[in-house]
Structures are given as C-alpha cells and as structure tokens.
Amino acid sequence: MHGTGEDRVVELPIGGVYATAERLRIKTLLGSCVASCLFDREASVGGMNHILLPGCMRPGDEGLATRYGVQAMELLINRIMSLGGAKHRLHAKAFGGAKMLAFAPKDIDVAAMNARFVLEFLESEHIPIDAYSLGGTMAMMVWFEPTTGKVLIRRISKPGSRELAAREQVRRTEIYRAVQRVSEHNVTLF
Question: pLDDT per residue over 112-155, tens digit each?
C-alpha cells in the first residue's frame, strides 16, 4: 500500500483479495484474469479480488487457493460481511478476461472461462452486476474505490501489454495444467 489519506492505493496481485471500509483505491492489472469488485454502498464497505482460474482448487493444484474463483469470491464476500456489509446489499462490477494466451488445443479459452465464471457466480448468488467489461484482447488497469463503488479502467495498448503477455506466457504451462482440472460446472457454494 502506498500514499496517504484518500490517495492510498493498495496493489492487488494475482490471487489477491482485499476488503476495506477505508477510503482508498484498490488497483490491479488484468490480462486473462478477472477481478470482481463488490461493494455495499449503505455500509460504505467493499473489496476486490484477482482471479487466475475459474472454479475451485482441487487436490494437486499448486499456489494460493484464492487464485481460483470460488475461493476468491467466497473470501471476498466473507471479508466484506465481517466489516459490516450485508450480502443482500452487495453490488458488483467485473473486469478482465482478455484473450492474452493461446493454448493447445484451441478450444481452451481461459479468459472466456474466467469471464463466464464470474458472471455465473454473481448471478447464482443474486448479486446484481452494475457494470462489467469482460473479454477483448487488451489488458486493462483497474482502480476501484470500495466505499463508493466507483471504478476507473484504462485499457493498455498492445505495445504496453507485451510485458503482461510475457508474464502470462511464463505461467502458461502452470495455467494449462490447472485449467485441465477445472470442469465447466464445479462451482460449490458455501
């Protein structure tokens, strides 16, 4: 976290989950990953997660459980509720899911799977989606103000997103192995 007062910015890494009742901004860089921004305006509390893969972690998966959609969403909801938010008052905004990686076989589209997961999860939990920007081929930077629900996004042009694409390419093998274990409908709600 850096900055002081209302200029404070929390940078969210892959697998990160952050909720707060403080006036600050949460920032993350997205390629094929997705971020869910949840907020309760009445309680002035909210948070964001950064999901690498849809579904839930299975035995044998390496890394943080919060890199997976179900764990990241449930943890974010629980943290917001622990800060005074109410699940029935939550609203959502969702971003990311850009096609940055090509897998073999061609029918695996991690970005589309991530986008579909977040929309289906929010619908199944009856959390209204106020706004979303999912898909495309460009990375994006997202800034979220959790106490107000305001979001600013900036799409990153192809030359600017080369660094992110290179980082995703390094993780390509890890992602491909994990995505093979994620079934279309393995969402288990708590």
Answer: 999 999 999 999 999 999 999 999 988 999 999 999 999 999 99
With 0.90 as the threshold, say if the pTM is over it. Answer: no
Would you kindly state where each structural domain of the chain is located, as residue ranges? 10-180
Given a contact cutoff of 8 angstroms between Cβ atoms, the answer to whether 113 and 54 are in contact is: yes
Closest of 49, 12, 52 to residue 28, by C-alpha: 12
Q: May I ask the CATH architecture of the domain 10-180?
A: 2-Layer Sandwich (3.30)
Taking a C-beta distance cutoff of 8 angstroms, is the pair 36, 74 a contact? Answer: no
Which two tokens mark 153? Answer: 């996004």
- Contact between 168 and 100 under an 8 Å Cβ cutoff? The reply is yes
Phi first, then psi: what are they for 100, rounded to 5°? Answer: -105, -25
